[in-house]
């Protein structure tokens, strides 16, 4: 008996926030979900998330693409149909044509993510712990946040339909602390903890603070008073920020601001962290 693969067809202008909101409401989800609502470039660029140790990069959950080529023709490509084009689309950065549709594999979902937080000190211990947890396929989600060369919090999660009421945390609400600051609290306390987070809140845990970028844009943005009164206004659209920034701000970003976005093999993680630390703080 052959099983039927469940897919969702996504076209331009549908962002990740909209896709997950719809799918979760009907009991499905993407196997690999980027943390930011408006994140793009995942098919023709690359996307690696906290479930990629199981499902691979974002491109690996795509089963078909539709492109408009330079001659104006519409082409559909899969592993069997126009396969050379199908395998060339990822990492092509828009050079092959306009992507006008993608068919993406989906999987059944559950209500909560049971998330474990474990502070780890020492670079060797951090790398060892992250590699071990990533190799453990019982962990549906694995993420590490590094706060210094030798301090990190390793998080592992599994989906579940049941949650302990005294350990639930709806981290996506606008008045909640930014997620990376929330996680840092476990590091400062050197405390192992577990929380139950609504699935969609977990998926978009870095949206409100744009990972940690918003602290440079709104330095007081994580202040409890600001969160409670104005938290519903963030995050601002990046396109709006670029449109309204002055020349001084633009130069400041160009000369003193670095966005780290690197994809490296697990075996080189220690070497990579040391190199990043040396280049940025040496």
Number of domains: 2
Q: What is the rounded distance between the termini? A: 59 Å
Helix content: 25-40%
Oligomer: single chain
What is the gyration radius calculated from CA atoms? 20 Å
Characterize the largest beta sheet: strand count, sense, and whether it forms a barrel.
4 strands, antiparallel
Number of beta-strand segments: 10
How many helical stretches?
11
Order of strands, main sheet, comes to 1-5-3-4
**Outline:** globular
Low-confidence spans: none
Determine the structural class based on helices, strands and strand pairing: alpha+beta
Report the β-strand fraction as a percent range: 15-25%
Element order: H for helix, E for strand: EHEHEEHEEEHEEHEHHHHHH
Mean pLDDT: 91
Catalytic activity: lanosterol + NADPH + H(+) = 24,25-dihydrolanosterol + NADP(+); 5alpha-cholest-8-en-3beta-ol + NADP(+) = zymosterol + NADPH + H(+)
Subcellular location: Endoplasmic reticulum membrane; Golgi apparatus membrane
GO molecular function, one term: Delta24-sterol reductase activity
Cofactor: FAD
Description of the structure:
By secondary structure, this protein is α+β, with helices and mostly antiparallel strands. The protein is 32% helix and 22% strand. The protein is built from eleven helices and ten strands. The protein has helices at 16-25, 52-55, 83-88, 123-135, 179-189, 199-203, 214-217, 224-230, 238-244, 247-256, 269-281; strands spanning 7-10, 28-29, 62-68, 74-77, 98-105, 107-108, 112-121, 141-148, 151-160, 193-198.
């Amino acid at each position: 008996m052959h099983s039927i693969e469940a897919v969702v067809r996504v076209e331009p202008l549908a962002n990740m926030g909209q896709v997950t909101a719809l799918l979760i409401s009907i009991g499905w989800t993407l196997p690999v979900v980027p943390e930011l609502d408006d994140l793009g470039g995942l098919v023709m660029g690359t996307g690696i998330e906290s479930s990629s140790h199981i499902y691979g990069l974002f491109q690996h959950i795509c089963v078909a693409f539709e492109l408009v080529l330079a001659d104006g023709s519409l082409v559909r490509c899969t592993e069997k149909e126009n396969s050379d084009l199908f395998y060339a689309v990822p990492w092509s950065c828009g050079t092959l044509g306009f992507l006008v549709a993608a068919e993406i594999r989906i999987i059944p979902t559950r209500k909560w993510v049971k998330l474990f937080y474990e502070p780890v000190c020492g670079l060797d211990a951090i790398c060892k712990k992250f590699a071990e947890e990533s190799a453990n396929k019982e962990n549906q989600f694995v993420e590490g946040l590094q706060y210094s060369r030798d301090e990190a919090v390793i998080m592992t999660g599994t989906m579940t339909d049941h949650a302990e009421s005294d350990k639930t945390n709806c981290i996506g609400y606008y008045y909640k602390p930014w997620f990376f600051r929330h996680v840092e609290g476990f590091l400062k306390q050197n405390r192992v903890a577990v929380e139950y987070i609504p699935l969609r809140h977990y998926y978009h845990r870095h949206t409100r603070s744009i990972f940690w970028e918003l602290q440079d844009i709104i330095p007081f943005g994580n202040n409890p008073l600001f969160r409670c009164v104005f938290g519903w206004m963030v995050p601002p659209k990046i396109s709006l920020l670029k449109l309204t920034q002055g020349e001084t701000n633009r130069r400041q970003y160009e000369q003193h601001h670095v966005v780290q976005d690197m994809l490296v093999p697990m075996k080189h993680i220690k070497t990579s962290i040391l190199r990043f630390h040396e280049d940025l703080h040496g």
